[in-house]
Design a protein that fits this description.
37% helix; globular; Rossmann fold; alpha/beta
Length: 251
Amino acid sequence: MKHAAIAAALALSGALVVTVLPLAAEDAAITTETANAIAAAVADTMRPAEDTARDEARKPGKIIAFAGVRPGMVVIEYSPGGGYYTRLLAKTVGPTGHVYALVPAGFAGRQDYMDRMNALAAQYGNVDIIPTDFGNYKLPKMADLAWTSENYHDFVNGGTAEPADKAAFAALKPGGLYFIEDHAAPGTGLTATNSLHRIDPAAVKSQVIAAGFVFDGESDALHNPDDPHDASPRQFSGVSDKFALRFKKPE
């Protein structure tokens, strides 16, 4: 019955083809309320067309469900980019939740970018855009989930991955979740982060576990076996192979 409720709720979005992931931890955490909130986020008419055009490749409904996002959560989002997931997270957590979108401190000087992101925050009403050092920040509330998508390899390049992991651990409540999605380069360790803008998921696991987290699950929703992993995602003609990892701060 629970699987049927999840599938029916997520299918409310015509842009989303639903296959419930066979992950016991995820299934146990999802309620019909959460599934409805995710479906409403994907179907949100405030999302720009350039975002919804990417949904087929990014599978936001599946990814948000796997990450453990639910209504009422306080979420930290590292490097929100243009706000693709910021909008989805804001809508999913709803008016009783909050999203702290952390952007690199250098972005504060890019007025056009900050204006766009602050307009997004005003549109949703439960988002704060915070230029900050990822390894040294203080939020008004302890968070339920920390999130980063397609950025972790850049954190490694900039020397902020380990500080961000430690800061996320400190900012999360006991039992809080840390979600990382990125372009995959299996077996390369940290050697492809700059040259190919990809990273080995095993290297991410090692770094995040070293910060105190426990590995809590992996989704293959974004896995593409046809990606040879030998070019940057922008140079690859198809959709890049991506991994999605979930970690947990011990209770």
